[in-house]
Amino acid sequence: MGEALRVSVGSLLSASFTLACDPRPLPFETEDGESRLVIEHGTFEATQEAEPPAELGTIHDDAPFEPTGERLVSTAVRTWIYTDTGPSRTRLGYLRAGAVVDARGPAILNDGCRGGWYRINPRGFVCIGLGASLDLNHPIVRQAARRPTRGEGAPYTYALSQDPSPYRYFKLPTQKQMLAVEGQKGLDRGASWLARARESKLAEHLPLSQEIPDFLLEPLTKPYGVDIGLRTQVHAGQARKDSGFAFLNFVESEGRAFGLTTDMDLLPLDRVKLVQETTFEGVRANAEMPLRAGFLLRGSVSLWSRSDSGQFRPVRDEHGKRGYLLTGQKERELIETSEGLWVARSALKMVPERKSFPSVAVGNRKWIDVSIRDQMLVAYEGRRPVFATLVSTGRGGVGDPDRDQATVQGTFMIYEKSVSSTMDGEEDRTDSFDLRDVPFVQYFHKGFALHGAYWHDEFGRARSHGCVNLAPRDAAFLFEWTDPQVPPDWHAVLNKERGTVVIVRP
């Protein structure tokens, strides 16, 4: 399984996206029309004698406002945030279904938004309509109450489909309904999985509730823009093979465990494999020493302590992939780590020290250096490296990205960042896949991005379809470190002018 070189390009009603989405307005938007200002229960027509404030609804209305308690909610996969309310408005980013944000009225009505435009913090305007609502009790708010986690690793709990892939139930099925859909074998498998989960450590870490939330007692409401699919009595068919899912909630019902996905499907957990997040993460500089780092790629390595007399003795063995911050002190064939222990230098893949720098390496300017041959990423502030990690670039190596599933080379700028985004492969390809909510996606050239990967732990080896795969913790760190910044409660931001530079080289 791998991740897509490019996010699916389709209509705004698709569940997969790129920044190059169709720029036409959503169905509830139009482009022109005279602006009207709604005040309380009446409508105030803009005239020469009585105009709304000059800044209201314009691109200059960009200062954060003091919240008053008025709020709006996102009810769509993407609730777009615009620079202003006029016909030439452009997109600043978007909210995700379930987000609740401070809003500032009065509503501005025009032909571009018949439900009314509201300002949100820290900037931008949202249109009330199919993608947003002032109803804080909207079903989507209750269903998507759990928001993605930022800065600490994977934003959601993830799972991968097993064979056969899970059915996508849109309401909790009864045992009779499950029997009709999956047969007795399905019921037995579900009961067996639940018994094993209770006996293992999984039950301790999985928030599996026996108390069924009210919103699961009725058919789930889909966010606007999610493909509903062809529904039977209780399900919308099976998920695609090689699918990945992000879960918001877990529940036990009718002797079986289910997970609620971000697309508002209920999946039997016995038909998926819950992802155990990799423990691997990159190495960060600290205030005491510059960034010198090495990585153990595989196997094991012994750590040694050094006595005052210069004698070395083994302390412990460490296994698997991990990084070490190094002091630069060497003794025999050993090199000292930041924790005062010593490791064989030959066991590590060292981060090369740069001898020359690009023109962007000035002052404290942030930039990212990706080496395809080294399968490494180093983040710099000016000429000072502050973070290094292993990555997985395109399996085509330094080949042609249009032909060989290689990562594009050159100097770019991050132009879109999203907390998560869906990626999938072509239906007619042998490596078809459907990976929901790929974490911490940062696009730097067309569909090429830096992003977390929850479906593999092979960082340090080329294996993607062209994107730069990162361990989830590394992706989470870089997402907060780079520009443009994504405001709290926003799911994505767009900025084609001032993003962090990304250099990809052989």
Description:
This protein has 506 residues and is mainly beta. The protein has four domains: 36-143, no CATH class; 157-274, no CATH class; 292-350, SH3 type barrels (Roll); 355-506, L,D-transpeptidase catalytic domain-like. Helices cover 9% and strands 36% of the residues. Strands 4, 5, 10, 13, 14, 15, 16, 29, 30, 31, 32 and 33 form a twelve-stranded mixed sheet that branches. Strands 1, 2, 3, 6, 7, 8 and 9 form a seven-stranded antiparallel sheet that branches. The longest helix is centred in the middle third of the chain and has 25 residues, at 175-199. The model is unreliable at 1-52 and 426-430 (pLDDT under 50).
Topology diagram in text:
Blueprint: E1 36-39, E2 42-45, E3 71-74, E4 79-82, E5 91-95, E6 100-110, E7 113-120, E8 125-127, E9 132-133, H1 139-143, E10 157-161, E11 167-169, H2 175-199, H3 202-205, E12 235-238, E13 243-253, E14 256-261, E15 266-268, E16 272-274, E17 283-284, E18 293-296, E19 300-306, E20 312-319, E21 322-331, E22 334-337, E23 342-344, E24 349-350, E25 366-371, E26 376-381, E27 384-390, E28 410-413, E29 416-424, E30 434-445, E31 448-452, E32 468-470, H4 472-481, E33 492-494, E34 501-505
Parallel strand pairs: 13-30, 25-34, 31-32
Antiparallel strand pairs: 1-2, 1-6, 3-6, 3-9, 4-5, 5-33, 6-7, 7-8, 10-13, 10-16, 11-12, 13-14, 14-15, 17-27, 18-21, 18-24, 19-20, 19-23, 21-22, 22-23, 25-26, 26-27, 28-34, 29-30, 29-33, 30-31
